[in-house]
Every structure is written in C-alpha cells, then in structure tokens.
Design a protein that fits this description.
By secondary structure, the chain is of the alpha/beta class. The protein is built from 19 helices and 24 strands. Helix 11 (349-360) packs antiparallel against helix 12 (366-379) and helix 18 crosses helix 19.
Length: 540
Amino acid sequence: MKSIYIFGHKNPDTDSVCAAIALSYLKNQKGENAIPKVLGHLTKETQFVLKHFGVKEPDYLNNVKVQLRNVHYNKGVMLNEYASLKEVIDYMQEKHCTAVPIIDENKHLKSLITLKEIAMLFFETSREHLHTSYQHIVNALHGTEILKFHDEFDGTLIAGSYQSQTFIETTPLSSSDILIVGNRYKVIEHALECKIALLILTNNFTLDKNLLELAKKNHVSVISSNFDTYNTCNQITLSNYVKTLIVNLSPSVVHELDYLTDFVEDAAKKGFTNYPILNKKNECLGLIRITDISHYDKKDVILVDHNNLEQSVPGIDEARIVEIIDHHNLGAIGTNIPINFRSMPVGSTCTILYQLFEESHVRIPKDIAGIMMSAILSDTLILKSPTTTEMDKKVVEELAKICEENYETYGYKMLKAGSSIEGMEIEDVIYQDFKSYKAGSENLGISQVITMDFENMKEHLSEYVDKLNQIAKGNYKAVTLFITDVVKNGSYVLYNEDAKTIIEDSFDISEVEEGMFIPNIVSRKKQILPNLVEILERRS
C-alpha cells in the first residue's frame, strides 16, 4: 500500500505537529497507510505535549522531491557476468533496451554493455579465443549434446578447414583447444588422439562408433552444430561469457535516492542514454534511461495547518497533494486534480479534525485526545485569543473529558513549559515560529513567541533587531517578532528598521519603538497578519 505523508508547515508549532499525528491515526484506522512527519525542530511546548501524553515524535521530512526510485525505470534489468553474448542480445530484444548492466553473483555492478559495444566487439575483436560454458555453446549453435566431460572451456578456437594431411602436419593441438570441423574422419581422429577439450561437428554430423569410443576414452567433449562450418565459426562467438567482452568497467551510475531533477541535469551534461541504478548497498536494481524520466509516481501528501507553498516542504510542487485540512486564509497553492479540502474559520486545525473523527465514527483514544486538546489550547491561548470560536470551546471540553485533564490548569502548565527561551540563540527564538507571506508584490515575515519573560529578552533588544535587519535584507519588506504575553493579553513588537512606519500604520501607533507593548494583540491570524498585509498591499 502506498504511503501518505501528513505534515504541517515549516517551523512547526503544536497545532501543526499534533494535527499531523491525529490525522495519521484517523487515516490508519480507516485502512490507509499514513505517516506523520515534521518539517523542522519541535518547540519546547510541543515536546512537552508529546511527552506528557506519551506520543512519539514524528520523523523529520526534508523534502518530497521525486527520487529515481519513484521513476518507472527498468527494474530488474541486468545479467550475470557469466551470461553469454547471445543471451545479452536476446535479452536486449526482449526488454527493448540498448544496454544491460552486468553484475556478479552479489548483484554488484561489473559493467554496462551496450548494443553499440557489442557490434564493435563482434566485428573488431579476435575470434580465436573462447571462454564459455558447454551449455552456452549448445545454445548458440542450436546444437546437440553428444559427449560432455567439461562444464566450461577456456581455450583456442580452431577451424579444421585445411586439407586433412596439411591440417594434421601444420596445426598442433593441445588439451585446451576447441576444434570446429565437418565430416573429416582423419582430422577428427587426430584431434581426439591429441585429447583436445572440445570437438564441434558441423552440419549436424555425428561420430561413428569407433570415433565415439575414442572420444570417450580421451575425455573429449563433443557437440554437433546445426550450422555449416562458416556459420558455426560466426555463431560460436555469441557463446562467449559477456565478462570476456566487457570494455566499460566504470560506467556512470545513479542511486535510487537521487533526485530526478538532479539526474536530468547531470544526464544532459554527460550525454549518456543508459544508467545502471544502485541501492544503498551498491547492489544493482536495474537500468534507467533518459527516456524514462517522464514516467514516475509522485509522493502522496496531506497538508495540515497550512495551504501555502512558501510554508510547505521543499519539492511540494513535485508531490501529489491529496488533501488539505486547515484553518488559515487561502494561500497560493494549486492542484492538478480535485482533492478533499476542509477549511474552517476556527481557532485550530485539531478542532476540524475532531469533526472528521465524528464523521468517520472513529473513537479518539486518550493520548490522541490529549494532543488534540493541547493544539487547540496552544493556538487559542487557552481559549482567550480572538480566533477562538464556540466550536473550539466545545471540542476542548469534550477532549478534556477523554484525556481526563483540567484544560485550564493543564493549558497554563503547557504554555509555561513552552515559553522559556533560556539558553536559546536569538536566531532560534526568531525562527521558532516564523512564517512567510506575500503581500502584494512584497514579502512579509512574521515570527511569534509566547513567553511571560520579556524582561530577559529586553536585555538583548539590539541583537534581536540586528538579526531582523539581517533577515529582511534583500528578502523581506518587513520582518517582525511579536512576543505575546498571555497573562497581560498583548504583545511586544520588534521589527526591522525599515518597517517602522509599516508597524505604525498597521496598528495605528503615532511613534512606535522597538519592544513596545501593544495591548489586546495576541493573534497572528486575526490581528497581526491582516493589519500588516493591508498596509503593504496599499503601498505596493
């Protein structure tokens, strides 16, 4: 069954992480193979929530780009180095390919042989030596087995085409030689007496009783060819082990975890058509051709708590979005096919998920109820944010019953655990919950930190502003950091220096200063983002 990755936005908060876990649980209960993922490090608050309810942290997902393992390449197309040249040619025709990876018994790549190389080898190399098996020779000559004393031959190939006496007098024979000859009694008798390795009789000729006994006595293997001498000499070349003909010992290879876009770019530079594809163990998996790149399976994903490309995982444009569950404004994201899209003006994605559980008649277990309740309390600041709806309140009460928690007591404990920034680098504080937006032609960055200890941050105010200036330079028209105090019901604001008038106009402040407290501003979605976007769009 194909996997579906479920994840929230970059710089994940409690709602995005818990929503991914809860929805994965629901999907799996309905028989799907859903896997929760995160796109960044978990906040202290989220870590507290998962630990409190005994829920495993999701694994990190760095991207959803198409990898070569998703491409419909020629899986399993390869031959052992002891295959015959005839087998290689027949295999190419069967698989409709112009190259075949050659492997050893451990599936490790030995070479890549192409049709062009076979043609060159067939016409340009010496045919005086043969290294192959008895059975390969029988197959190449459409022959008949008469006597078999050896499984393999590695010797000189000789055609008995001279007059009998001349051949006997001028051609010395050894125990490794392979002789091709027609109905020539004296030559055959001489060869058998010399105890050659293999006698090949042309035109379906066979041995009489005396010669057969001599061959048995001297352990000479015998095969009868279906062809005449000329064609036998040509066809027997096809019986050689392909390992004896290998010329390309270091072919350009790719790995199944390589990205398709990188492969296309690299292949354009190299100009090759065929590439053996390997796994982590360097075992050959098959052959990928440049013509295969248009046939691939996209990774199936479900987005929760966001619907904006800029906030999603790298490579999202290469994935197949099958569903979106969100409670934010609609962003710039599109799909090629109709999808399930559930968007509601509620305080948390997990409020929507509660409805999905009810609609699916799936019971919510205690641990899942606990993290869903935590997500709603986090996003609504314990139901005090202006984003809070009656539905949020109702769902929190129901989930609190299931997980057996007093949601207010637990909520303050959760926020306190997550609000500590002690020991954190300034950059980490800013990017802990940082989101990018488009406002007209301008880029906007909004970070929000919930803490009850702004006084400690104040000591490093200039360093925070310097970092915001650095982030904004060349990338954003405005970058802001709102430090929200739930107890005081408001936020302190920091901003890049060029955004001073933007902040003033957005929040109707006559003379704003870094670190100024703005009362009743606690919601990024309903209070911070709309105000900033309106001013930026008006100015762009």
